[in-house]
Write a structure and sequence with these properties.
This protein is α+β, with helices and mostly antiparallel strands and 190 residues long. The chain is built from four helices and six strands, in the order αββββαββαα. The protein has two domains: 107 residues, Ribosome-recycling factor (Topoisomerase I, Chain A, domain 4, Orthogonal Bundle), CATH 1.10.132.20; 68 residues, Gyrase A, domain 2 (2-Layer Sandwich), CATH 3.30.1360.40.
Length: 190
C-alpha cells in the first residue's frame, strides 16, 4: 500500500507493534544477564555447532535448576556433550562446565560486589539501547505522519497523532525501565 493511502491508524498500529518487539528483545536480553539465581534462560544465547548447523542449546538438551546456583544440562543425544561443553566455554558466561558423561553441571560462583556492579552496568547499557530503539521507531512514525499532511489529513489530525505516538513511546520506555530495575534488584540482592 503506498504511503499516501496509508491511514494514521495503520501507521500507529505498526509503530506500536515494533515497539512491543523492541521490549520483547530487551526482555530476552535481561533474561540472559546473570543474576544471583540460576535460570535456564541464561543459556538462551548459547548456540552449539551440531552436525554442521548452529543450533540453540535448548533444542539439544533439557536445562534444569536443581539448586539455586546450579544448572543441569541433560543432552538428548549423548554424542553432543563435547560440542555443548565447547559452546559454553566459548560463550560470554564465564562458566566452567563439569561433564560426568551423562549430564553437564554449571555451578555459578558467588558474585562479588565488583562483578555485580559490572552486571548492573551491562543492564544499564542494554536499557539505553532499548530506549534508543524505541525512540528511533517514534522518529520513523512521526516522519510517516508528517508525509500525510495535506493528503487527506489535516495538520491538527497529524499533530494529535504525533502526541499519541509520544505518549505510547513514553509507556514503552517506562516498561523497559521497569524491567531493568527488576533485573538490577535481582543482581544486587545478596
Amino acid at each position: 500500500m503506498p504511503e499516501s493511502e496509508q491511514d494514521i491508524e495503520t501507521i500507529f498500529l505498526e509503530s506500536e507493534e515494533r515497539m512491543q518487539k523492541a521490549i520483547d528483545a530487551f526482555q530476552r536480553d535481561m533474561n540472559a544477564v546473570r543474576s544471583t539465581r540460576a535460570t535456564p534462560s541464561m543459556l538462551d544465547t548459547v548456540h552449539v555447532e551440531y552436525y554442521g548447523s548452529n543450533v540453540p542449546l535448548n533444542q539439544l538438551a533439557s536445562v534444569t535448576v536443581p539448586e539455586p546456583r546450579m544448572l543441569l544440562i541433560t543432552p538428548y543425544d549423548k554424542s553432543s556433550m563435547g560440542d555443548i561443553e565447547k559452546s559454553i566455554l566459548k560463550s560470554d558466561l564465564n562458566l566452567s562446565p563439569q561433564n560426568d558423561g551423562t549430564v553437564i553441571r554449571l555451578i555459578l560462583p558467588e558474585l562479588s560486589m565488583e562483578r555485580r556492579q559490572e552486571l548492573v552496568k551491562q543492564v544499564k547499557h542494554r536499557l539505553e539501547e532499548a530506549r534508543v530503539s524505541i525512540r528511533n521507531i517514534r522518529r520513523d512514525t512521526i516522519d510517516h505522519l508528517k508525509k500525510l499532511t495535506g493528503k487527506g489529513h489535516s495538520e491538527d489530525e497529524i499533530k494529535t497523532s504525533q502526541e499519541e505516538v509520544q505518549n505510547v513511546t513514553n509507556q514503552y520506555i517506562q516498561k523497559a525501565e521497569e524491567l531493568a530495575e527488576q533485573k538490577e534488584k535481582s543482581i544486587l540482592t545478596v
